[in-house]
Write a structure and sequence with these properties.
Strand order of the largest sheet of chain A: 2-1-3-4-5-11
Oligomer: homodimer
Radius of gyration of chain A: 26 Å
Number of helices of chain A: 12
Largest sheet of chain A: 6 strands, parallel
Chain lengths: 332, 332
DNA sequence: CTGAAAGCGCTAACAT
DNA sequence: ATGTTAGCGCTTTCAG
């Protein structure tokens, strides 16, 4: 098993351990012939370097620490981890995953664990887009779905642009009375989307109408919000909804009220949760939050920083693609 | 930073590195006074042992490898990882997470990575309950939501019992014409639940009626299955549905057919996906697949094995708790 | 109760 | 092009 060491290979190949190391890593100068012989012997013996020893010597573990505040409740988490995982694997690195359950004390302690494990860089992901204070860490640090100012690299959705695009999608389809259903809790997501919606409506010479109910942003919230919206403006023909679960709630209220989607009411969501958006009837047109891509980018960024490239922090806002399905009626 | 080493602490405390090691780990015999002084100095200096060095020396990394076939698509994954994560953290261990995207080649390679990282034990989780062939690994290996015979430890839901309990729930509520909606793909989940359903109906002197449509088991499948079921037996009053997404589809067909839930049709699902079960209207009565618990158990099991306890493999079938909400009409 | 010495398995300098 | 010598930072015998 993991038993065979570099010395065994060296002995079997009739060279020194140093040469084996050089041959296998491609570092020093080794004759092509020796290199291939060593490689073959290593393969035959099933040799794989002990990464712990390598890490101790090189002072580089090739392990990335991944901290998240809440890895379970949403399927988002999985996609971020997956993207990070894939990028890490492609770069020859591995992820050490840890989560804080939204408890700052636990978080600090978990970061401590990662530090003791000598991870080369830290990824810090939050399940809801928000501003955070970053943990102290000496190596590269990159935030996912969070931001902390220009001094630290981060990637998150462009919420304002999301509001603009979603509203424009409905306007372009010929709708004029477009309402925005959201929650009244503070947050980068709700605020950015509301602003984008508002500016777009105003820009089109239309009165914005935002209906915000108490959180969390789930189906219940969507039900209540649409009830309020319809009561206030029975002639609304389209709703831009904060997220997919709320859109699901809007569907429920629409059904109760006898409003057909999309004939009587067009609906646009945000998230593109496979479990919801594609399963609703009619399938929901929504904007995809690119979690997988964010995870990928973050790792790539961290690895480049470790390699001495990209020395400046970079803050990126990523635009979300629309996923057109069947919940928008085109009236043009 | 991670700069301060054991020698720094030793110097500052006026003792040898050996004594610091002993004092901090509680291993050797150290006077209470020395111990507390060392502890204080270590704390003041912000010292934390370099786990890489420790691991190399002790030949124990205190890191667990977590392999999953598909960590993203379902929210299941997150809960398994979370449970594993919590248990690991409680045991002073860390998780190294890797995923294979259902590709055997990638899987083998990822296991190799974990082995090179010298993980102490391997957890192997699959997103759908199935039988697997286990990767070669020299340490403790435990399967989550998968099984591989009595020789390897594993934990998975008791599917048969699930079928029995779900059916009984409906029978106990006074229903007689209970249909089972499922898919026609092979799998431990569908087969076990069908068997449990069938035996329970037969045991009650009632004719089983299972309607299986093509997979995957999503809302579309649920819609089709309920259509078929109603066509075959318009008098059915209750449906035990394979999973929550299919139950969501059944809701959609019921709405289209003018069947009210639960007055005209009672529905029971399986999964307890927060995103669906709690959000449906009426909220779905379902059986919870205990992913968090399975992740926890697996880690606990692996750690005990590492500690020399539990030397025999153990295969556990875990019974799933019912989560009563509003989709079952009680007619007794 | 404390410390000196000897590595864990590997790779980076530095010869040769 | 290859080998020798030193450690990486820690924990363990084993002496004192």
């Amino acid at each position: 098993m993991g038993r065979v060491g570099i010395r065994d290979v060296a002995r079997a190949a009739g060279v020194s351990a140093t040469t084996v190391s050089h041959a296998l890593s491609g570092q020093g100068k080794v004759s092509a012939e020796t290199r291939s012989r060593v490689a073959r012997v290593a393969r035959d013996l099933g040799y794989a370097p002990n990464r712990v020893a390598t890490a101790l010597r090189r002072r580089r573990t090739d392990v990335l620490g991944f901290v998240s505040d809440e890895i379970a409740t949403t399927p988002f988490a999985g996609r971020i981890v997956l993207g990070a995982q894939d990028a890490a694997s492609a770069a020859g690195m591995t992820l050490m995953v840890v989560n804080s359950n939204r408890d700052p004390g636990v978080e600090a302690q978990q970061v401590e664990v990662l530090r003791a494990q000598q991870v080369d860089a830290l990824l810090y992901a939050t399940m809801f887009h928000r501003r955070v204070t970053v943990p102290a860490f000496s190596g590269p640090l990159v935030l996912v779905n969070a931001e902390a100012g220009p001094a630290v690299s981060s990637i998150a959705p462009d919420e304002y642009r999301l509001g603009v695009d979603a509203t424009r999608l409905l306007l372009d389809a010929g709708h004029r009375r477009v309402v925005h259903l959201t929650i009244d809790e503070p947050g980068l997501g709700v605020e950015g989307r509301v602003a984008g919606y508002r500016d777009t409506m105003l820009g089109a010479g239309l009165p914005p109408h935002v209906v915000a109910v108490g959180g969390p942003a789930d189906a219940r919230a969507g039900r209540e919000a649409l009830e309020l919206a319809v009561a206030a403006d029975p002639d609304a023909t389209a709703a831009f909804v904060f997220n997919d679960p709320m859109a699901m709630g809007a569907y429920q209220t629409a059904a109760r009220l006898g409003l057909r989607i999309p004939q009587d009411l067009s609906v646009v969501g945000v998230d593109d949760l496979e479990l919801i958006a594609a399963q609703l009837l009619p399938a929901l047109t929504t904007f995809q939050l690119p979690h997988y891509e964010m995870g990928r980018w973050a790792v790539t960024r961290a690895v480049r920083a470790l390699d001495g490239l990209d020395t400046q922090p970079e803050v990126v806002s990523i635009v979300c693609a629309e996923v057109v399905r069947e919940s928008v009626d085109v009236r043009v």
